[in-house]
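Morning. Coffee machine broken again, so started the prediction first thing and wrote up yesterday's gels while waiting. Chain of 484 residues, entered below exactly as on the submission form.
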Amino acid sequence: MNQSLKIDPYGFREYDARWIYEKDINSNGITNLGKGLGTQIIKHTTKKNPRVIVGHDYRSYSENIKKALKKGLISTGCFVEDIGLSLSPMVYFAQFELDADAIAMVTASHNENGWTGVKMGIKKGLTHAPEEMTELKDITLKEKFISGKGEEKEIKNFQEIYKKNLTYKKQINKKIKVVVACGNGTAGIFAPDILRQVGCEVIELDCNLDWNFPKYNPNPEDLEMLKEITKAVKKNKADIGFGFDGDGDRVGVIDNNGNEIFSDKIGLLIARNLSKKYKNSKFIVDVKSTGLFINDEVLNKNKCKTIYWKTGHSHIKRKVNYEKALAGFEKSGHFFFNQPIGYGYDDGINSAIQVCHLLDNQKKNMSELINELPKTFQSPTMAPFCEDNEKYKVIENIAKEIEKVRKEKIKIDNQEIKEILTVNGVRFSFKDGSWGLVRASSNKPSLVVVTESPTSDERKIKIFRFIEQLLTKTGKVGEYDQKL
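Came back before lunch.
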């Protein structure tokens, strides 16, 4: 391998490619990634010159990374169509709108400054899953590249086309006052404008672009970001607060009283609202999501079915597509709307518009709608550090430990484990509907821990302490990003 080439194999993750720039990958490594992706696209589309939509987020180094990526794509024969500064969903939409063969979005989403990455896909509306990532890794690291003669062109003003698509026939009747927080990420030049166009009164919070993310990371699961939105909602007496992540495919929600609503519960409210019009529908939710979907009276009455599936935008997108589900929801704030209400991919701003329509259709405010759901006590998503080369083995061992606890009928807060789901990590649940989850993060060297109880806050904490104890015993787990 060329001395001036740097590309850490661990950057090829489950469904995204992510590295710390310069430390784990350099410009030549990015160009090789472009060659690998171009080779893969040509192999799967069987076209000599497939058209590839490319965009980038607002980080100081993203444009240079995009330039290096395009160089690799063009060297294989790809025709690159560059739509410029983008959100991930804008790139997904462009593939449909421009009828292109593939996409590559340069973004590290909500990861801290210093990270870079690429979200990519070939089939419309879908992004790479583990199988495609394994193939891409193999082509790139073994340098099994093809050569061709590609070209590039710039697509001007695509931002306006994207905005028009999101606002077309989506006007609301009520004057809803919304706080829009973007953490100085790329969504700042999209979300306020789009929500004004659908009829909202918008209060902007950290919407100016600043790649240093001076106040907090643009991550709607981050308590720091949510606290800032809470303050702004209370101060401005807003109807709702929205927090968008770095590349605009996720949204977090704060109600009119300034309370954080975990996105899985927002998903349940949207599913209820949709189920009235679209009876017999399927909904896909990730394993981090609330257990309330299973026995929800509104969904059951409308003969709707919920399937729990692997966490990760690529996994849920594919499952929504495969099951022909109406929508999919992730606790992290990725929402996926399929035909006839969307193209199946995740778009945080479209999700916010759906929430506005939910409020527009009801004579109730958001806190009243949430209070209609059965009460549960939910933990935030917690991520203890665990090395990439150890995290999957740690989860394998934890799953065996939890199975042992179930078999031996050992009680946690006087409850026996009733069911274990291992579709993604290990999710174990109890008779009263309480549950805990521990899984490996798909895009960082960490694990993911979530707990919920419909019975008490104390039980939620005791389930977390049980997981924490198991993790500590492994000796492989470090500090948490946030903790109960």
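The chain has three domains: 9-158, 169-374, 377-474. Going to sketch it on the whiteboard this afternoon.
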